[in-house]
């Protein structure tokens, strides 16, 4: 492949779901793509769709386990070799997790944070020297979740939510590190989007130190019956979510919400916190 000086979009978790939607959306704008994921089969399909949508150059980087820095570093170097410069670094790879805290294991925690939190950190660190050195406009986009804004009571999202809260903090840490300059940092907070994140989580969840076997569609459907009702509603299409997110990046938004009508949940959480501040002030006053 020859180098392309237009700047590529490096996208983790781009074999399916929102990652694929982001890839196809950017492809339609003529953006060269570097697609990274564990699934080689899924990446091939995303590559086909991206080329059809207008991407001038697409490189594929399978076997990219974002929880392993050496895997991300290798994919990053291969992407830079293929494209030369960066326009977007999209830290999108993630796994879902809905489970009562008492039923989680240490392996679960290490796995969830390994992908959702350390995966973002590893991707940022793999490209940070290049982003600082190239001196051209670029955006780091981190996919969080509405669960990064609050943890809905009764939904058993504590572990997942904790891993996504951390993504927002990492993004701010990156802004502090970059300071004023051509590289901006945005965080996307998707609501319910039509992805296979829940089924993937069930298939990839560690058991005895190794991933569980891939579930059939029927097994995955049965295993997700206990999800909160909100998760069972028809979700936004990945392409529509991607359109909103990239439009937000174009407008320089620091925080981008695919479902802004869900602000009522944030407002309820804010009221709870405000009450905590108020009543704590009474304690301080004696």
Automatic annotation (TrEMBL):
It holds the Pfam family adh_short. It comes from the Bacteria. Coiled coil: none annotated. The keyword Isomerase does not apply. Keywords: Oxidoreductase. Gene3D superfamilies: NAD(P)-binding Rossmann-like Domain (3.40.50.720). GO terms for molecular function: oxidoreductase activity. Belongs to the short-chain dehydrogenases/reductases (SDR) family. This is SDR family oxidoreductase. The lineage of its organism: Bacteria, Pseudomonadati, Pseudomonadota, Alphaproteobacteria, Rhodobacterales.
């Amino acid at each position: 492949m020859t180098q392309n000086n237009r700047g590529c979009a490096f996208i983790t978790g781009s074999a399916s779901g929102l990652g694929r939607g982001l890839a196809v959306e950017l492809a339609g704008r003529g953006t060269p793509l570097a697609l990274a994921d564990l699934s080689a089969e899924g990446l091939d399909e995303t590559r086909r769709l991206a080329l059809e949508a207008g991407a001038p150059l697409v490189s594929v980087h399978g076997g990219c386990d974002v929880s392993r820095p050496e895997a991300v570093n290798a994919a990053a170097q291969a992407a830079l070799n293929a494209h030369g410069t960066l326009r977007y670094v999209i830290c999108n790879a993630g796994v879902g997790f809905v489970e009562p805290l008492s039923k989680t294991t240490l392996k679960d925690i290490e796995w969830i944070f390994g992908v959702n939190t350390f995966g973002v950190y590893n991707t940022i660190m793999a490209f940070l020297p290049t982003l600082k050195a190239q001196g051209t406009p670029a955006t780091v986009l981190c996919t969080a979740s509405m669960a990064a804004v609050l943890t809905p009571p009764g939904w058993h999202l504590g572990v997942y939510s904790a891993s996504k809260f951390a993504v927002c903090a990492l993004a701010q840490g990156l802004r502090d590190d970059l300071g004023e300059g051509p590289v901006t940092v945005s965080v996307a907070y998707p609501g319910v989007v039509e992805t296979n994140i829940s089924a993937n989580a069930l298939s990839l969840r560690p058991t005895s130190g190794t991933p569980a076997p891939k579930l059939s569609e029927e097994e995955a459907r049965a295993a997700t019956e206990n999800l909160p009702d909100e998760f069972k509603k028809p979700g936004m299409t990945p392409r529509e979510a991607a359109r909103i997110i990239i439009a937000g990046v174009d407008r320089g938004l620091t925080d981008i919400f695919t479902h802004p009508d869900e602000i009522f949940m944030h407002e309820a959480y804010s009221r709870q916190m405000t009450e905590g501040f108020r009543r704590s002030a009474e304690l301080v006053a004696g």
